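Collaborator request, handled under Task 6.
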Amino acid sequence: MAKIWVEAYGCSASFADSEMITGLVVNGGHTLAQNPSDADLNVVVTCSVKDATANKMIHRIKRLKNKPLVVAGCLPKAEMGTVEKFSPNASLLGPNSIGKTLEIIEFTLKGQKKIELEDSDISKVGLPKVRLNPAVGIVEIASGCMSECTFCQTKLSKGELQSFRIGDIVRQVRQEINDGCSEVWLTSTDNGCYGFDIGTDLPTLVDAVSEIEQDFMIRVGMMNPMYMPRIRNGLLESFESPKVFKFLHIPVQSGSNRVLKEMKRGHTAEVFRKSSELFRKKFEKFTISTDIIVGFPTETEDDFEQTLDLIGETRPDIINLSRYSARPGTKASLMEQIPVSEVMRRSKIVFDMANRISHERNQEWIGWEGEVLFDESSDGTIKGRNYAYKPVMVNSKVSIGQRSKVRITDAAKHGLYGQITS
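Structure tokens returned to the collaborator:
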């Protein structure tokens, strides 16, 4: 039996994969190392969505390759050659091959390279796991997506949409709650198209999970805007449940319909605008999170101005900003690229605008009083979330999973500050 170190990067689905890999490791009789230097074998669960992220993955692979190494997740599936260039002896485990974890560890410990990149284990519901956060259960509801975005490697890594059955997901959620989780994340590559391949949809799933009798909160993960017109009315009703955080992550990427067409996003800026308007009209202080890419190869100055106009109109609470980077294997990587200096200029404008809007949106919460669920520990500080999934920090000593009434006294661009009142 060996000591295994597992580390993960990227989206919540990637972290869910790492929890399952760790669960299989422990169930297989191995122990978890406290750090990479203490391990007999290292596992890194990778992400490849951006150049900066991929470069970080390469750095970690180079640092960890002096011991037996398994590179898991999206990077080996999308860029096998890149991984092998920097660590020729590393074993490779795809995002839909997690059931092969123990087998690949056994081979790697013996000094034998093993590659398992085929989609052999699509359904991840019910696999053992060791949670990164004891208060949060991350439940994957599907693998793959239905999109063909010209800038994205995700389809290369995870393939076509394969939704998991509602009954299986509900059983998994029950298990998370019974294990002590007070919050559940429903996550996948794209929640918006969940169920389209098996005759159901996301609102139906959210309703089924909300009906579980225990006391817990649900965070509905990222959904692309292209599917919102099809499920929006149902979601508006599903979000009425007090168990559902009043929070949507809908990545618009650009305010220019011409650029969105070049990206093959399948939606218009108006879809995002309308969705933001409807959810905020129905629910008080609803949190909207979105993603913006600046410097897509065909983005003109006018296209960029349209993006700024859309941000100014919709005022998202959170903007995940990316400078476009050409990812190998994508159609956009073959296009003529915008000079880096211009991409950086546009990025700085959006960055400053996003920070200003986030601060102003958060200031609207000053004076609010209500329940906060403390669900996260970072650098020794425990923070919570209110009903709209706003981060809340308090001076009092609190514990993970605690619920307390808090009055908000101050706000910053990244969250709220308050005092416990009961």
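The cover message to the collaborator said: "Residues 369-420 form a domain with the OB fold (Dihydrolipoamide Acetyltransferase, E2P) fold (CATH 2.40.50.140). Residues 198 and 386 are 34 Å apart (CA to CA). Please let us know whether this matches your experimental observations."
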